[in-house]
Amino acid sequence: MCKFDPAVLQCTANRTSMCLTPNEIAAARRVYAGVVNKKGQVLFPGTGPGSEPLWAAYASPGFSIGTSYFRNVVAHDQSWDPATFNVDTDVARAEAQDAGNAKAMDPDLSAFIAHGGKLLTYHGTTDGLIPYRNSIDYYQSVVAKLGEELRASVLRKDIDPVTDSLGMADLHGVADVERQRVERLRGEDRSRQLTGVERDAYVRELQEKLNEAMMKLSIKHRTVVTLFEIDGLGHQEIADVMDCSVGTVRSRLHYAKQLLQAELQPYMRR
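Given the sequence above, the corresponding structure tokens read:
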């Protein structure tokens, strides 16, 4: 994995623009480091390089997922203020409750293995709000629990630096595209069934086309698409995160979808 140090971007006497101050470098390092308690234990890994355009979401009151969870599930208090959050006590409080098995990090897969199960884990890196190190940490905890020899027979991990954790395949309309593709193949030859290999190849190719199209968007437009289509934020929440109007969010989203559709249209008609 990339070992990026933001200090390489520090401002100097000859470099006063497109650079970072010492305070900004320190802040970036803290984001990369993740949530650490007083004992120095990493409670939640930080985001990796490439996640920077989405950092504002963590600091914005408009990003309400964590606040809503703590108010409704942990504290049961709608007046709970996230500014009072204490890393050492509140994380332990949430983990003790673990409502709905939300943590889902138990490395003991012995029952699963006893039933002949094998596990393939996958984590992409396009969505910077979902730290890939969390998946790596879980993988390592399973290895520690099961032992290396048993791990090799039941568990495999894959970190993809291009696609996100959802494979970018749940952008609006993609499911319909694939369904139409399948129907077209069946219409050409009713006796022919789409094999798993054919479907996997098509989905992989579709993901690559989507990623190429996403990379042609500006950072602002790509961020809007990611927050709306993948993280599920509403227009007002995105406006709060990006410090702009709802109208601007709608405009950027509309433009981004038009560009994506134009880029994918030749492929969709094949």
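The longest helix spans residues 246-268. Try to locate this feature in the token string yourself.
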